[in-house]
Amino acid sequence: MRVSTKGRYALRIMADLAEHDSGEYIRLKDISKRQNITLKYMEQIMPMLIRAGYVKSCRGNNGGYMLAKRPVDYRVGDILRVTEGNFALVPCTGEENYPCGRQEECSVAAFWEGMNQVISEYVDSVTLADLIKMKVE
After folding, report:
1. pLDDT score for 61
2. Which in 13, 52, 60, 111 has the greatest CB count within 10 A?
3. What is residue 56's three-state secondary structure?
């Protein structure tokens, strides 16, 4: 499994919003500078986070972005799924409509399902609040 740049940047943006949360909206340009992510790329990611209900936006002079919930209420896995989809390593274990006629006799399907479960459990066990603590330690 490889997390795309979009997924990595979405997680960095969310962590930045959590770390700099003062109750006021944060300008995209400020996040861009701190995270060294181009504004153009961030403008592709932010609508995904807004549609997912993870980020609120406000236009105008004092506008910008802020988290919709507390950092402890966001699981890393949920954030990554917004940009990456599911974490299945092989299509036959992660896609409902994947036509695999060997599912019943496949000797390795259980391995892939177990691997998917381990990955999901880990990414779902870490919150944005945990990420901020990890940075400080």
Report:
1. 85
2. 13
3. strand
